Amino acid sequence: NAGVTQTPKFRVLKTGQSMTLLCAQDMNHEYMYWYRQDPGMGLRLIHYSVGEGTTAKGEVPDGYNVSRLKKQNFLLGLESAAPSQTSVYFCASSYSQGRTNVLTFGAGSRLTVL
Amino acid sequence: GNSVTQMEGPVTLSEEAFLTINCTYTATGYPSLFWYVQYPGEGLQLLLKATKADDKGSNKGFEATYRKETTSFHLEKGSVQVSDSAVYFCALSRESGGYNKLIFGAGTRLAVHP
């Protein structure tokens, strides 16, 4: 099983450029999430989706947009990249949304903004 | 607010040593508690979880007990192996605005040497 696949794995951008990170899951999960991981700060939720066609803001949504046009895909976009968005981005998905919910993560996408 | 505090790393041990990684939390009510592990170059994966006070989660020789009186969920292993080298994240799940939010600690890097 592929699980959660993220592309690209690495990307270097210049300030002001735009890009899209793609997340694909093959587990028929309803819920999908985008996190960023920064040193000393753990993972912080950017945006999430509770189903196809829906998205919602997490803790740190500013500067990012998302779309969930198909159930298996969750796209994270940066319209005008800033150095503060240099980070490792993780996509995750889950079958349910309860308090005992377990997330399946992708391998991460490392983004550097110069 | 809700938060998770982990001991700072890196933690460096010799093979077969005893491991403890401390985790304490702040939350109202009764969160679920998790340990996720991130091996080099991979995404996070669930190591173990506990959903109520005094529950013990265990997996792959790792254990953690949900201690409500001390608001702690310390991770332990009796004899570590080189293959346990990874970053370990403590997390809690709490309902917030109709969504079960997963809050992560900053992570603790473990390096095990032969």
Features:
heterodimer, A: 114 residues, mainly beta, 7-stranded mixed β-sheet, 4-stranded antiparallel β-sheet, 0% helix, 50% strand, globular, B: 114 residues, 6-stranded mixed β-sheet, 12 strands, 55% strand
Shape of chain B: globular
Shape of chain A: globular
Output the helix-strand order of chain B.
Answer: EEEEEEEEEEEE
Total E-strand runs of chain B: 12
Q: What is the multimeric organization of the chains shown?
A: heterodimer
Rounded to the nearest angstrom, the radius of gyration of chain A is 13 Å
Low-confidence stretches of chain A: none
The sequence of SSEs of chain A as H and E is: EEEEEEEEEEE
Total beta strand runs of chain A: 11
Round the mean pLDDT of chain A to the nearest integer and report it: 93
- Largest sheet entry of chain B: 6 strands, mixed
Beta-strand content of chain A: over 45%
Written description of the protein model:
The complex is a heterodimer of chains A (114) and B (114). With 114 residues, chain A is mostly beta strands. Helices cover 0% and strands 50% of the residues of chain A. Chain A has strands at 4-7, 10-13, 19-25, 31-38, 42-49, 56-57, 65-67, 73-78, 87-94, 104-105, 109-113. In chain A, the strands form 2 sheets. In chain A, strands 2, 4, 5, 6, 9, 10 and 11 form a 7-stranded mixed β-sheet that branches. In chain A, strands 1-3-8-7 form a 4-stranded antiparallel β-sheet, with no helix packed on it. By secondary structure, chain B is mostly beta strands. Helix content of chain B is 0%, strand content 55%. Chain B is built from no helices and 12 strands. Chain B has strands at 3-6, 11-14, 19-21, 23-26, 32-38, 44-50, 56-59, 62-65, 75-77, 86-96, 99-104, 108-113. In chain B, the strands form 3 sheets. In chain B, strands 2, 5, 6, 10, 11 and 12 form a 6-stranded mixed β-sheet that branches. In chain B, strands 3-9-8-7 form a 4-stranded antiparallel β-sheet, with no helix packed on it. Chain B has a two-stranded antiparallel sheet with strand order 1-4. At the A-B interface, β5 and β10 of A face β6, β10 and β11 of B.
